[in-house]
Amino acid sequence: MHIILNSYRIVRHASSVSSLDRLSPLLERxxxxxxxxHTGPLCGxxxxxxxxxxxxxxxxxHGEMEVTHRGVSGRLxxxxxxxxxxxxxxxxxxxxxxxxxTEDSDFACATLDFDxxxxxxxxxxxxxxxxxxxxxxxxxxxxLDLLFAEIDNLRCGQRxxxxxxxxxxxxxxxxxxxxxxxxxxxxxxLLTGLTDERLARTLVAIHExxxxxxxxxxxxxxxxxxxSSFAARFKEMVGQPPAEYLTGWxxxxxxxxxxxxxxxxxxxxxxxxxxPPAFSRAFTQRLGCSPRAWLATAL
Length: 299
Fold this sequence. Notes:
Number of strands: 10
Largest sheet: 6 strands, mixed
Radius of gyration: 21 Å
Order of helices and strands: EHEEEEEEEEEHHHHHHHHHHH
Strand order of the largest sheet: 1-10-7-4-9-2
């Protein structure tokens, strides 16, 4: 299944959740690196292979094309793109462009490399594909103007700046997704939890400080809810109990730290575990192998 939006009207949300920075704690800890690799026309059929941990972001400002990829069922899915659009593939998925953009098209492609690959918190909760008309996101226009101005004029530092501008486009897209999760009909998970004003406060606090001595009461207090109401709402929106989400987040952070060279003992302490054996037990229960065994295969 993939998400297609043909037309959209931007609606401002009055909720105070819009003033809460729900993305920075995620993107600072688990970066997404964008790299421009193509601009201009394509010839015939162009296929983009699926590679572990890699996504794609394509921007068509002018022109048209047909896009194909395999759906969850294995059937070939087709989509005609006949207006300026952004095509976002957050997870590895082979796709192809047919009747690709011609010489008079404004077209650019970037790869997306997610820290942690498939374990990246945002990657896990996004649909396989999002096709979004550019006029649905008014905030994209300034970044795209700068991006294509760099693409069209060869100057010192062009590639580096273009890569950074694609990162800006991606962050603007993530903002839009958070503000329009209902229209995208996203499945329960982190993103739907972040759209809830009260749960977002707790989720952001957990993301920022996973090593705090979190209890159900502490998490509910962060959300300004009773424990029972918080636990029920969290399960409904995020799809798992608060304690299970906390453990999953801690293990995800632990994988990132271990991969970067942190010791098991230090990682255990920083993530709120009483001692390394307690951390190892939680890690093994979650991933089916010990931290040392996992690290031997991850490096």
